[in-house]
TrEMBL record:
It comes from Pichia californica. GO terms for molecular function: uroporphyrin-III C-methyltransferase activity. GO terms for biological process: methionine biosynthetic process; methylation; siroheme biosynthetic process; sulfate assimilation. Keywords: Amino-acid biosynthesis, Methionine biosynthesis, Methyltransferase, Porphyrin biosynthesis, S-adenosyl-L-methionine, Transferase. InterPro entries: 4pyrrol_Mease (IPR000878), 4pyrrol_Methylase_sf (IPR035996), 4pyrrole_Mease_sub1 (IPR014777), 4pyrrole_Mease_sub2 (IPR014776), CobA/CysG_C (IPR006366), Met1_fungi (IPR012066), Siro_Cobalamin_biosynth (IPR050161). This is uroporphyrinogen-III C-methyltransferase.
Length: 516
C-alpha cells in the first residue's frame, strides 16, 4: 500500500529529477505543486534546460511570488550523492522527498534512484510508475474550507481527474457559505444550555442530513436560534409583494416521489411549473428543488426535533395567507403526501378554511425502495400482503401497535433506523417474529448514493450500529427479501451500493416542452 498524500511538505527539501530537453507540463505542475506545499526548498536538477528557459514558463498559480525564492535550479546531471548532500542540516543533508519527472530515463537509472531512496528512507514518486513510487499524490480540489482528495489507487490519474471534475460539478456553488453556516450552527447548538448532548446531535443531524444542500447555505442562524427557543414566523416575500394577478388562490398537495426526477409524476412537474409559492418539506430532494423555476418562491419547512408541530403550523399559516392573496400554492411533500406525511391533516386544515385541495399522489419510498433493492413485495407462495409501518409512535415513543408476525407479509418500516434497537426486542420476544427473517435496509432510494444492506432480523440492531447511516432509509422485512438473492449461511450482512444516476438520461427540457 502506498502512502496517498495531499502534498504538505512543511519545511522539506525536495528534489525534482528531470532530463528532458523541453519544459514539460508535468515539470511545471510539479514545480507549482511542490512550491505551493510549503517546502524548505525545491531543487530541480536538469542538465539540458537553462534557468531562464524554465523561469519563462512559470506562469502558474504559485500562491505567493516569494515562494519562487525557494526554487533552486541545478543545471547538471543528477548524481546519487545528491540525495545525501542537498538536504537540510537538521536531517544531516539527506533529501526529504524525491520526484522523478521525465519518463525518458533508462529503467536501470530509475531503479538505482528508487533503491537508494528506499535505503535512505526517502519518499519517492516516479512519474507514471507506481512500481517505483513509495507515495503517490491525490488529485485534489480546494475551495475555501473544502478539500477533496481523489485516488483510484494508482489506476490512472486521468480517471481521478475525470472523477474530480464530475464531483466538482455536483458541489453547490455556495459550498463555502454552506460549510460556514453549518459550522456556526454547530457552535450555536453546542452553546445551547437547554438541550442535552443527544438532543443537540439529533438537531444537527436533522439539519445536516436532511436539509437540501443548497439551502443549508441560506438558513438563517438567527432564525434557527429563535426556533430553538420559540418560533418566529417568517413571511415569504411573495406574500408581501403586490404581484398578484390571480383572483382566487389555489392549493395543491403534491407528492414529489422519493428522490429521483425519474420518479416524479408529470402532474407534479406541471404543478411545480405553475406554482407561485412552493411550500416544501426538508426531505424533498435537491434534484427536485432544482427543477423549480427561478421566479417561483420556495419556503422549506423548518421541522427540527421538538419543533415539528410549530413548523407545521407555520407552513399552514403561510399557505393560507398565500391562497387568500390569490396565489397558486403547491405544498410539495416527499414521496406520497398521505404516507406518513400529515397530508390528511393539511387537507382538513385547508378544507376547514373553505378551500378545496387538489391532491396529486407521489411514488412512495417503500415501493421505490423495494423495487430498487430487488425485492418483489408480493410474490406467489411467498408474500401476499404488504404493510407499511412507522418506527416512531406519537410523541416520539415506540409505536403501541407493532404487528404480530405473519409469515406471508412484507412489512416496511419507515422512520425506523434509529429506533430499531428499541423495536426489535418487542417484535422478537412479544410478537413472535423469527430472528432469521431476511431484512433489507434501503437508504436514499432512487438517489445516486442509494445503498442496500441485507441481513437477518436478529442481526439488525448490530448492523444498524455498525454502518454509518445514510438518511433517509427504511427497513424491509419478510421472506420476499430472499426471492432473488440470499445471504450465505454464515454471512452476517452484505452492503450493496445500488445508486445510479437515473436522472442523467432524463431530458428535462424536452419533457417541459412537451408539457407546455
Ligand atoms: N411520504 C413519504 C414518507 C415520509 S416519512 C413517502 O411516501 O415516501 C419519512 C420516511 O420515509 C423516512 O424516515 C424514511 O424511512 C422513508 N424515506 C423517505 N424517502 C426515502 C428514500 N429515498 N429512501 C429510503 N427511505 C425513504
Amino acid at each position: 500500500m502506498k502512502i496517498l498524500a495531499q502534498l504538505d511538505t512543511s519545511d522539506e527539501s525536495i528534489i525534482l529529477i528531470d532530463n528532458s530537453n523541453s519544459v514539460s507540463k508535468n515539470l511545471i505542475n510539479k514545480i507549482s505543486l511542490t512550491l505551493n506545499s510549503n517546502p524548505n526548498k525545491v531543487i530541480l536538477i536538469n542538465p539540458n534546460l537553462s534557468q531562464s528557459e524554465i523561469l519563462s514558463k512559470l506562469d502558474f498559480d504559485i500562491k505567493n511570488l516569494s515562494q519562487l525564492s525557494k526554487l533552486e535550479i541545478l543545471n547538471k546531471e543528477f548524481e546519487i550523492n545528491d540525495l545525501l548532500n542537498l538536504g537540510r542540516d537538521l536531517v544531516k543533508k539527506i533529501i526529504d522527498r524525491v520526484f522523478i519527472i521525465s519518463s525518458n530515463f533508462e529503467e536501470s537509472k530509475i531503479i538505482e534512484i528508487y533503491q537508494n531512496c528506499l535505503i535512505n528512507r526517502i519518499p519517492i514518486n516516479t512519474y507514471n510508475s507506481s512500481k517505483y513510487s513509495t507515495f503517490t499524490l491525490l488529485s485534489t480540489y480546494n475551495n475555501g474550507d473544502l478539500q477533496i482528495g481523489i485516488t483510484t489507487n494508482l489506476h490512472g490519474c486521468k480517471m481521478s481527474s475525470r472523477l474530480k471534475r464530475e464531483l466538482i460539478k455536483s458541489i453547490p456553488p455556495n459550498i463555502n457559505d454552506i460549510i460556514l453556516n453549518v459550522s456556526n450552527l454547530r457552535n450555536l447548538i453546542n452553546s445551547n444550555e437547554i438541550l442535552n448532548k443527544k438532543e443537540k446531535l439529533k438537531w444537527l443531524s436533522q439539519i445536516i442530513d436532511y436539509y437540501p444542500l443548497n439551502e443549508l447555505g441560506k438558513i438563517s442562524i438567527d432564525k434557527l436560534n429563535n426556533d430553538l427557543n420559540d418560533l418566529v414566523f417568517k413571511t415569504p416575500n411573495s406574500l408581501n409583494s403586490s404581484i398578484n394577478n390571480k383572483k382566487i388562490g389555489k392549493i395543491s398537495l403534491v407528492g414529489s416521489g422519493p428522490g429521483s426526477i425519474s420518479n416524479l409524476t408529470i402532474g407534479a412537474l406541471n404543478s411545480i411549473y405553475e406554482a407561485d409559492l412552493i411550500l416544501a418539506d426538508k426531505l424533498v430532494p435537491q434534484e427536485i428543488l432544482n427543477l423549480i423555476p427561478k421566479n417561483v418562491e420556495i419556503f422549506i419547512a423548518r421541522k427540527f426535533p421538538g419543533n415539528a408541530d410549530n413548523a407545521q403550523d407555520e407552513l399552514l399559516k403561510i399557505g393560507l395567507e398565500a391562497i387568500e392573496k390569490g396565489l397558486n400554492v403547491v405544498r410539495l411533500k416527499q414521496g406520497d403526501p398521505y404516507i406518513f406525511g400529515r397530508g390528511g391533516e393539511e387537507y382538513l386544515f385547508f378544507q376547514n378554511h373553505g378551500y378545496k385541495v387538489n391532491v396529486l399522489c407521489g411514488l412512495s419510498s417503500p415501493f421505490v425502495a423495494t423495487i430498487n433493492a430487488g425485492i418483489p413485495t408480493t410474490h406467489r407462495g411467498v408474500a401476499d400482503q404488504i404493510m407499511i409501518c412507522t418506527g416512531v409512535g406519537r410523541l416520539g415513543k415506540i409505536p403501541e401497535n407493532l404487528p404480530l408476525f405473519e409469515s406471508k407479509r412484507t412489512v416496511i418500516f419507515l422512520m425506523s433506523i434509529k429506533r430499531i434497537v428499541d423495536i426489535l426486542p418487542i417484535l422478537i420476544n412479544e410478537k413472535q417474529w423469527p430472528s432469521n427473517l431476511p431484512v433489507a435496509i434501503v437508504e436514499r432510494a432512487s438517489c445516486g448514493d442509494e445503498r442496500v444492506i441485507r441481513t437477518r432480523l436478529g442481526n439488525l440492531a448490530d448492523v444498524c450500529n455498525k454502518i454509518e447511516s445514510r438518511p433517509p432509509g427504511l427497513i424491509v422485512t419478510g421472506w420476499a427479501c430472499d426471492v432473488y438473492t440470499k445471504l450465505n449461511d454464515n454471512e452476517e450482512f452484505r452492503i450493496i451500493e445500488t445508486g445510479v444516476s437515473l436522472d442523467d438520461n432524463v431530458d428535462l427540457e424536452k419533457i417541459v416542452t412537451l408539457l407546455k
